Amino acid sequence: MRLIAYSCLISLTLGLACAPKPDSGDSHETTTTGSGDPHEATTTDSIEPTPCEGAATPIDATAIAYPIATDLPDCSDYESGTGCWDGPPDGSVLVHLTDRTYTCDPAAEYEQCGTWVLSFAIPAEYQAPGLYHLTGPAIRGSAVKFPEPAPDGQCEVASELLDATLEITAIDDTGVTGRLCHVQSPLFAGAGIDVEGSFSAPLCD
């Protein structure tokens, strides 16, 4: 498996950010202009995942996974601005579910306005079948919604930490297979986006 260099170009393309960590405040939800990185949100309590029940139907979304290798130094000062990396650690697998059509080309450009992305990064030590809660600390998930552009052409980003159970059923050099259940996402629910069900995300090489 070849690791791609995770640069600012790729993170912006995927709807993430190279900016400092936002203040999580008293809520999991953040709203930013441009690109927000809800992977950076923190929680103080670990929630025990609730097992999924019954048969799962496939989520109506494109699924794709990217191996992570950063070409930026770690961020040690969140006030320093851009130019550093405080995203998923090296060796992680970043999974995206989206209504876009993603490819494995790191230079590909995507239309963001009017789309949505659910994403979570699986660190190397958790790349095994099992149950995880997406509020962390092992794996953190995010829900990102890009509304239609405003009259000035700008597209604001609404994002939140995703409250859901992730069940990984298989993960290897070919991809990640699993399901999401017990999803609590005011952002997605308000937009009529259903992300409960199974997925199979091929891994880019």
UniProtKB/TrEMBL annotation:
Residues 1-19 form the signal peptide. PROSITE patterns: PROKAR_LIPOPROTEIN. Residues 21-54 are annotated as: Disordered. Keywords: Signal. This is Lipoprotein. It comes from Nannocystis pusilla.
